[in-house]
Amino acid sequence: MGGMLVSIRDLTLRLPSGGRTLSVLDGVSLDVDAGEAVAVAGPSGSGKSTLLGLVAGLDAPTSGTIVVAGVEVTRLGEAALARFRREMLGYVFQSYHLIPTLTAAENVAVPFDLAGTAGATARTADLLASVGLGDRGHHYPVQLSGGEQQRVAVARAMALDPPLLLADEPTGNLDSATGGAIIDLLFALNRDRGTTLLLVTHDEALAERADRVVSLRDGRIAGERRRAGALAP
């Protein structure tokens, strides 16, 4: 473990809801070490996906701070946020978010295009091969199974080798065998590349594979446990 990568302090998000205020997150504090795999588990509506979106700077909290690699995400303007996401984050969503008019290879190449990276074609091919889709790069999303689309999404998220990978219910639309293969892939990236993994799931069995499980309930941290055999920070 290489020191703290993510530090969340007293994070609160309140939204107006039918004439009253709804607390989506209520005073959440959480630290994640570099190289750690942390699962945020809890029932639907507990605030898990909202927490991940705030870490990515997709939304702004009502109060509290999020610091990633020394950068206070909650203070960044739009241009700085875009750069932060490009350099620091990979994001895997439940519903793949592939661009339907682009092939698998072209989808994976999007981050390279945005960053102006040279030699992207070879690196795209390597990434597709690493997720077991070396021969499917010319296929469009509609020609791929759900599991294959999610593999493309993982390859795209890892294109620029970000230090932090956020995964929001990455197996939610997949059957258990296919979902298991995606999870294997995410934990392999964590293990082999040292990518820090922050994973949101309502699947307890899946959560148990992480180094640490943080339970969220009604917008608050309800408990935390470390996997037997996981290295303490």
Please, could you describe this protein's structure?
By secondary structure, the chain is an alpha/beta fold. It has a single domain, classed as Rossmann fold. 33% of the residues lie in helices and 30% in strands. The chain is built from 7 helices and 10 strands. It has a 6-stranded mixed sheet, with helices on both faces. β7, α6 and β8 (196-201) form a beta-alpha-beta unit. α3 crosses α4, α3 (104-115) runs parallel beside α5 (146-157) and α4 crosses α5. The longest helix is centred in the C-terminal third of the chain and has 18 residues, at 176-193. The radius of gyration is 17 Å and the shape is globular. The termini are close together. 42% of the residues are buried. The model has no long low-confidence stretch (mean pLDDT 90).
Q: What would you call the structural class?
A: alpha/beta
CA(first)-CA(last) distance? 6 Å
Annotated CATH topology: Rossmann fold
Give the domain tally.
1
Approximate helicity band? 25-40%
Radius of gyration from the CA trace?
17 Å
In what order do the strands lie side by side in the largest sheet?
Answer: 6-7-8-3-9-10
Architecture (CATH level 2) name: 3-Layer(aba) Sandwich
What composes the largest sheet? 6 strands, mixed
Number of helical segments with 4 or more residues: 7
Low-confidence segments, ≥5 residues, pLDDT <50?
Answer: none
Shape assignment: globular
Helix and strand sequence: EEEHEEHEHHHEHEHEE
Top CATH class: Alpha Beta
Beta-strand percentage?
25-35%
| CATH homologous superfamily grouping | P-loop containing nucleotide triphosphate hydrolases
Q: Give the strand tally.
A: 10
